[in-house]
Design brief:
Blueprint (H helix, E strand, L loop, with lengths): L2 E7 L7 H12 L3 E7 L5 H10 L2 E6 L4 H7 L2 E2 L1 H6 L4 E3 L9 E3 L2 H11 L8 E5 L3 H12 L4 E6 L2 H10 L8 E6 L10 E4 L22 E4 L8 H8 L4 E3 L2 H16 L6 H20 L1
Helix pairs in contact: 1-9, 5-6, 5-9
Length: 287
């Protein structure tokens, strides 16, 4: 009988998590079923409980339920504790044991950067946005020992709040914040767009001086075409512009290894996912 897993969210139709986890399972010879599970905004806990009672072994969690997933669990990884949010739940065999929660977003980002050959030690990093996406990746980024991380946000108080909250984890890194419109005119090694602007083809107000021949521009959004942010960086001579597809695959691989004790090869799954996105875009254009 296949092991049963799911991704839960609202909305959930767009999720490609089943494609990713089914590909991992084929690669490693694991018999599983993986489904999309929609839950009403006020029905997350009930949906999780029903899934577990019907044989579910684990879940991925997407918006808007990551905070609730953290609250539901009785045990948490250090990463989830730092993020105060969870994207992965593990259900012990005994119903009496507490649910375990982890957050694999940050390690997914770091592993994607590593996949592309980018080491952060001693580098200058700019993060655009101070919301949940930034909170989820900040601790793993700090562990890579960059020289500096600057968090820029429209409401600078949110950036300052994250700086204060993570001040005990900075090591030798200078962690500081500023208004989005007040970013210093200097060159960064890595610029991460963690705002939702790309989802509506918008671009935050940014000075051209951020980007140079050594800069990697990273957008957490992804799609069939480069995002507006990626295009902006390319036009200004960025060394690389990357979207968040690799992060999606790498965070899924971390969840998969947590559930199954085996780490899949992500390279072929990246290619599979990119092709699926391309074909979906072509089909949408032909309709």
């Amino acid at each position: 009988m296949p092991q049963r897993y799911a991704v839960i969210g609202n909305p959930i139709e767009h999720s490609r998590s089943p494609l990713i986890h089914e590909a991992f399972a084929r690669q490693l010879g694991i018999d599983l079923s993986y489904e999309k599970l929609w839950a009403p905004i006020d029905g997350f806990e009930e949906a999780v409980t029903a899934f577990r009672e019907n044989g579910g072994r684990g879940m991925n969690v997407t918006v808007p339920f990551k905070l609730e997933a953290f609250d539901l669990a009785g045990r948490h990884s250090a990463r989830a504790e730092r993020a105060l949010a969870a994207n992965t739940l593990v259900f012990p065999a005994s119903a009496e044991e507490p649910v375990y929660a982890d957050n694999t977003d940050g390690v997914g980002l770091v592993n994607d950067l590593r996949f592309h050959g980018l080491k952060l030690e001693g580098k200058r990093v700019l993060i655009l946005g101070a919301g949940g996406a930034t909170r989820g990746v900040l601790a793993p980024l700090l562990e890579q020992q960059p020289q500096e991380i600057l968090i820029a946000n429209r409401n600078p108080d949110r950036a300052y709040g994250l700086v204060e909250e993570f001040s005990d984890a900075t090591g030798e890194c200078r962690l500081h914040g500023c208004p989005l419109a007040g970013i210093e005119d200097s060159l960064f090694d890595l610029v991460i767009n963690a705002t939702p602007a790309s989802l509506t083809a918008q671009l935050p107000p940014l000075p051209d001086a951020l980007i140079g021949a050594r800069t990697v521009a990273y957008d957490m959004a992804y799609g069939a075409e480069p995002t507006v942010f990626m295009q902006w960086a390319e036009e200004r001579g960025a060394r690389h512009s990357l979207d968040g597809l690799g992060m999606l695959v790498e965070q899924a691989a971390e969840s998969f290894s947590l559930w199954h004790g085996q780490r899949p090869d992500t390279a072929p799954v990246r290619d599979l996912l990119r092709e699926d996105i391309r074909l979906s875009a072509e089909a949408a254009e032909s309709d």
